[in-house]
Recover the amino acids of this structure.
């Protein structure tokens, strides 16, 4: 039964109860009303019984309406609690996805950094090899010419930024060549 139909039924029942209350049932005995609006005198036991029945019926209808209203509010509350639970679950999933994405970004940056460092080391090795080739003479390596070539290359490398790390790699590679650790 829909709430509207239930309410219409309750209103009709209240009207019937009020009709019984106003007519006084089957008795035609006049009722006297005191200054407080209460009936007194001239009532029979049957009228009193019908009056109590009408009042009880009105209270029963009112209670049924209140119970139905509470049931509807309870159902709405359960629905809202379900939606809140679903939203909290979504929030937790989004936070977990966000954490995984942050980790993926950090890993990607680390891989990119490692790749740049490997490129810098390869460039440094090429530079040192070119300096060695230019410093070769028929009887071996001209160490003075090699040192000058490395110093010239070191001046060309910037002191700041990502290429600044080449200075250290260039120095280590030059030491290895000069001490014949290759």
């Amino acid at each position: 039964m829909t709430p509207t139909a239930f309410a219409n039924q309750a209103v009709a029942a209240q009207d019937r109860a009020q009709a019984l209350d106003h007519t006084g049932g089957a008795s035609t005995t006049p009722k006297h009303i005191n200054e407080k609006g209460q009936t007194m005198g001239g009532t029979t036991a049957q009228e009193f019984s019908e009056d109590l029945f009408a009042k009880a019926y009105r209270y029963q209808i009112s209670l049924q309406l209140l119970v139905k209203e509470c049931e509807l509010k309870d159902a709405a509350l359960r629905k809202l609690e379900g939606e809140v639970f679903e939203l909290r679950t979504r929030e937790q999933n989004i936070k977990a996805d966000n954490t995984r994405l942050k980790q993926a970004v950090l890993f990607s940056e680390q891989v990119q950094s490692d790749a740049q460092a490997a490129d810098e080391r390869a460039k440094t090795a090429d530079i040192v090899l070119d300096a060695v080739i230019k410093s070769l003479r028929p009887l071996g390596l001209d160490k003075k010419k090699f040192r000058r070539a490395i110093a010239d290359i070191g001046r060309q490398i910037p002191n700041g930024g990502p290429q600044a790390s080449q200075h250290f790699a260039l120095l280590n590679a030059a030491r290895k060549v000069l001490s014949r650790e290759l």
Remarks:
- The beta strands are 32-33, 39-40, 136-137, 140-141.
